[in-house]
Amino acid sequence: MQIELLKSKIHQVAVTEANLNYVGSITIDEALMEAANLIENEKVQVLNINNGERLETYVIKGKRNSGVICLNGPAARKACVGDVVVIISYCSMDFEEAKTFKPTVIFPKDNHID
Question: What global pTM score does this model have?
């Protein structure tokens, strides 16, 4: 049996940009991506703490150490610059393997990894 569980989480980062004129996705600082064990084009869920919006999209690699968190395309309508979001990815795995799996969770400070 396969189940879905938390794989990666970037806990509470601020949206730095919202670019409506783009085809879609979320741009994330490459250093944050690596720290959270996310890869480019990976599906993520974005939870907006300020307004309760939730959306699914995919990751685009942003400039390393820039702190960028940019919602692109239609997702730009779901958040304002300065809103605090949580970015989550999930994985599927065998039930027994899932019992010992440890997700990667990071708590950036000012959108950067210390």
Answer: 0.95
Q: What is the CATH number of the domain that holds 34?
A: 2.40.40.20
Of all helices (H) and strands (E), which one includes residue 46?
strand 43-48
Band (pLDDT 50/70/90 cuts) for residue 5 is very high
Residue among 18, 83, 88 nearest 57 (CA): 88
Per the annotation, the verdict on 90 as an active-site residue is no
11 assigned to some structural domain: yes
Q: Into how many domains does the chain fold?
A: 1
* Residue among 8, 25, 90, 92 flagged as catalytic: 25
Residue 113 domain flag: no
Summarised one tens digit per residue, pLDDT across range 48-83 is: 999 999 999 999 999 999 999 999 999 999 999 999
Residue 99 placed within a domain: yes
Rounded to whole angstroms, the Cα distance separating 12 from 10 reads 6
Check 8, 22, 58, 92 and give the catalytic one. Answer: 58
